[in-house]
Amino acid sequence: MDTVRIAFVLSVLLLAGCGSHAARREVLHVHVHGSAANLPVTEGCFLLLRSNVIGGGWMTYCLERFINDPGPNVTVLDSGRLTLNLPTHTIHATVHVQTKFGPDGEHAVQKLRGAVSGGGTIAGGGPYVEAPPGHVGASDLRYTIRLPA
How far apart are CA 75 and CA 136, in angstroms? Predict the structure, then answer.
């Protein structure tokens, strides 16, 4: 009887412990707002943009590849490298972006997903205005970054 009771107690303890080791993640919310500055392009970057982050810091995006040109009712797919220089973190990510332009060919909505160097993910997007093509005049982009703790 004691052997059965001990086996039962050990089983309960093992099962109870299974859920307690869930991976913890640090979650950051980043808000990019305003126009973007076009920086001199570097090797591998077709376009290099720098934007301000609300709360301090900035974001740079190196566009490496793209499909389609901005225009009325066009969806542009692109990929590249994103760097966030924040007061508490510097984050590097490889990202894929889907941008749907409206009928005027200038107002667009971005959806971004990617992998953070060293582990983690980034996702988000939002509206922005691109006119002429390659020049962001206004943006209201929000990203969620999940980092391993």
Answer: 16
Query: Residue ranges per domain, the chain?
Result: 23-148
DSSP assigned state of 19:
G
Give the 3-state secondary structure of 34-56. Answer: EEEEECCCCCCCCEEEEEEECCC
Neighbouring residues of 135: CB distance < 8 A, sequence distance ≥ 6: 36, 38
Q: Give me the sign of the Cα torsion angle 52, 109, 99, 128.
A: negative
pLDDT category of residue 79 using cuts at 50, 70 and 90 = very high
Query: CA of 61: how far to CAs of 10, 15, 94, 97, in Å?
Result: 53, 46, 10, 11
pLDDT at 65: 97
Distances (CA, A) of 98 to 30, 67, 108, 138, 145: 19, 10, 10, 17, 18
SS3 132: coil
CATH for 23-148 is 2.40.350
Other CB atoms closer than 10 Å to residue 138's CB: what's the count?
Answer: 15
* Closest residue by Cα to residue 71 from 35, 108, 38: 108
Length of the chain: 149
